[in-house]
Write a structure and sequence with these properties.
By secondary structure, the chain is α/β, with parallel strands linked by helices. It has 15 helices and 21 strands. It has two domains: 21-357, pyruvate-formate lyase- activating enzyme, CATH 3.80.30; 360-447, Arc Repressor Mutant, subunit A (Orthogonal Bundle). A hairpin with a 3-residue loop joins strand 10 and strand 11. Helix 3 runs parallel beside helix 4 and helix 3 crosses helix 11 (338-346).
Length: 449
């Protein structure tokens, strides 16, 4: 990779955690649509559940999530009560009781919920859904707000994977993003988790942050590796102050340029490899003993709204304001405003207010993009045949790929497209060639690197 190639291909493209992507959701998909789609879920369709808790004690300036700052617990407690009602409501709309194989709590800060509310909600979920005995139950955590009591409550409720937000251990960077989190604080939470029996631990790190340098990234990787998390995700900061106004607190001049971002990302990748982590897809890393490495080797790695995952469920149900669900017929998203979401649930209706239905062309392109994102290669003829189509339908995309092939980013052998190792950082740019929706939503996406 050199500066010229980076400048040529580092454009604003989706992260491809779905296809079509969220900017293309529309209000033509509503609660009535969702009710029909839920009723059609078959008994043998494994389910994945996602729970969004949109509250934080304070705002991190880099945040791109739907969340709000609260100083009192009352709004959080009311939210937990409404979410419990939503679990009962949606569970009752499923005519079958398919097994729940994965559950993920995100935010915001899920551990802002009290230990009692966490346990109550988990009991409601188990009462309303058929949670498999070996289901993976993961919770995102902010080490600054987690207590030992929280950790014990999570363990009692069956949580078996924890994802800790770290970002960067450099104090100057932490102050610039309004997230001061000493190493010892994170280390303490890891100790509590392992003592409680929650052994599977993920860390989230970031590059491209204000005042961050390559040395900062390497030091953060080294400190994180000392705690030996099973997985590490290294995300690039997406600076979109026109969408997230609190990001205006980060001065533009404090941010690294595109080449510096690339150097930071590659430095993290190299250091993690030296520390025994396998590079997975675009931005994930895992120990050889982790299940994500196993599914990667079997060609079964998946990608959803949480990023790379071992979750093979083809139906995902989202709970809470702004949460997104994915069913065989398409995608749905709950209302983002807390009031609109809460009123819908209290009135006995799903809170869905937009989404998008998918057709076979969407599904085929989604499969192609997912394989490129996960495996760095795809056989167009194999994927097309699943839908009764031919690889010849992608002659236009192959033509657009030729400059990338000439630049060493990708190769093609017959109908098989492969992304080269030097081209890995630009895989989203390759995927974008197969995105027929992109032109109308490009302004709302982050840079490829």
């Amino acid at each position: 990779m050199d500066r010229t190639l980076l400048e040529r291909y580092d454009k604003r493209v989706p992260r491809y955690t779905s296809y079509p992507t969220a900017p293309h959701f529309h209000p033509g998909i509503n609660a009535e649509t969702y009710t029909r789609w839920l009723a059609a879920v078959e008994k043998d369709t494994p389910l994945s559940l996602y729970f969004h808790v949109p509250f934080c004690r304070e705002m991190c300036w880099y945040c791109g999530c739907h969340t709000k700052v609260v100083r009192r617990y009352e709004p959080v407690g009311e939210y937990a009560t409404t979410m419990a009602d939503e679990v009962t409501l949606i569970g009752g709309m499923l005519e079958a009781r398919p097994p729940v194989t994965h559950m993920h709590w995100g935010g915001g800060t899920p551990t802002i919920l009290s230990a009692d509310d966490l346990e109550h909600l988990m009991a409601k979920i188990r009462a309303g859904f058929n949670v498999a005995a070996d289901a993976e139950i993961a919770v995102e955590m902010d080490p600054r707000t987690v207590t030992e009591n929280h950790v014990r409550a999570l363990a009692r409720a069956g949580v078996n994977r924890a994802s800790l937000g770290v970002q960067d251990f450099n104090e100057q960077v932490q102050k610039a993003i309004n997230r001061v989190q000493p190493y010892a604080m994170t280390e303490q939470v890891v100790e509590w988790l392992r003592a409680a029996g929650i052994k599977a631990i993920n860390f989230d790190l970031m590059y491209g942050l204000p005042y961050q340098t390559v040395d900062d990234v390497i030091r953060t990787v080294d400190l994180a590796a000392q705690m030996r998390p099973d997985r590490v995700a290294v995300f690039g900061y997406a600076h979109v102050p026109w969408m997230k106004t609190h990001q205006k607190m980060i001065p533009d001049e404090s941010l690294p340029d595109a080449w510096q971002r690339f150097e930071q990302a590659e430095a993290a990748a190299k250091r993690l490899a030296e520390r025994g982590y396998r590079r997975i897809g675009l931005d994930h890393y895992a120990l050889e003993t982790d299940s994500m490495t196993e599914v990667l080797d079997k060609g079964r790695l998946r990608r959803n709204f949480q990023g790379y995952t071992t979750d093979e469920a083809r139906a995902l149900i989202g709970f809470g304001a702004s949460s997104i669900g994915a069913l065989p017929q398409g995608y749905v998203q709950n209302a983002v405003p807390l009031r609109a979401w809460g009123e819908a649930v209290r009135n006995g209706h799903p809170a869905v207010d937009k989404g998008i239905a998918v057709n076979d062309d969407d599904r085929l392109r989604r499969d192609i993009i997912e394989r490129l994102m996960c495996d760095l290669e795809v056989d167009l003829s194999v994927e097309a045949a699943r839908y009764g189509k031919s690889a010849n339908e992608f002659s236009g995309e192959i033509e657009m790929l030729k400059p990338m092939i000439a630049d060493g980013i990708a190769t093609i052998d017959g109908d098989r497209i492969s992304i080269t190792e030097p081209g890995r950082p630009l895989m989203r740019a390759v995927c974008a060639l197969f995105d027929t929706y992109l032109d109308s939503g490009v302004g709302r996406h982050s840079q490829a690197v």
